[in-house]
Amino acid sequence: MNSKYKVLKFNSKKFESIDDLISIEEPLEISLKYKDENNWITQNLSITMRTPGDDENLVRGFLFNEQIVQDIKDIDSIESYGKKVGQYNIQNKILATLNNSQNVNISKIKRDFLTNSSCGVCGKSSLDALEIIKKDKTSSVEPQISKEVIIESPNILKNNQSEFSKTGGIHASGLFSSNGQLIDLKEDVGRHNALDKLVGSILINGKLEPKNQFITCSGRLNFELVQKVLMTNIGIMIGVGAPTSLAIDLANKFDMTLIGFVKRDSFNIYTNNKKVNVD
């Protein structure tokens, strides 16, 4: 499932406005109905960010892979419910009803899902928890960065990764000054973990200067990564891969400049091109 977005594309030394197909990202709130002794319990279980479509199989696989159920036959029904919302007019809530509660790992549900946040947005137990605490937008015009700095930042990131050259299987997030100087870099097998490590390092070492800095990440850009960067007030985020629809919508809401698909001589600006020198 995808949608068209207007993009300012830099390619072969010139900018042009194009339509680009973007993968849709939407939250899915998973609730579980099961019997605990003699009482029926309906409980918000988790939120996962997904591309809409085939939601029933997603939930079925989730319940089995997490070993909440060991036999999918114990799932009596899986039904989407609630209002169709958002610009794509889809239901973002789903309820799985279990028919054999004796085989349900209730202790695991209480231990792993009702008390923990496993991965930021994904571990929160209600769509209401997606509300961002942040109220202020980022600066609409600062910092200013050049085309050359944008194109070079992923190369600098890769060349300074200590683990990537050894394993080829690790992500990185880097903090850069507006002139392209690498300030700090952190690595992790998880993209969101690498970014969390970077932000923690920036804060503890007093390196944060939002109007003079940007962040570049390996891989694609999703809602969660954009949300994390926004909390620092840094208003430019660059990714080697493509952003999702929800990442673009969130960046646009807070005047963030979101840049993706950075290659040797091209990149796409998805939101707010005022911070890029397009001359």
Textual characterization of the structure:
- Helix 5 packs parallel to helix 6 and helix 6 runs parallel beside helix 7.
- The chain is 24% helix and 32% strand.
- The relative contact order is 0.15.
- Helix 7 links the parallel strand 10 and strand 11 (257-260).
- It has two domains: 26-130, no CATH class; 134-275, Cytidine Deaminase, domain 2 (3-Layer(aba) Sandwich), CATH 3.40.140.
- The strands form two sheets. It has an eight-stranded mixed sheet with strand order 2-1-12-11-10-9-7-8, with helices on both faces. Strands 4-3-6-5 form a four-stranded mixed sheet, covered by helices on one side.
- The mean pLDDT is 85.
- With 279 residues, it is α+β, with helices and mostly antiparallel strands.
Please sum up the structure shown.
With 279 residues, this protein is α+β, with helices and mostly antiparallel strands.
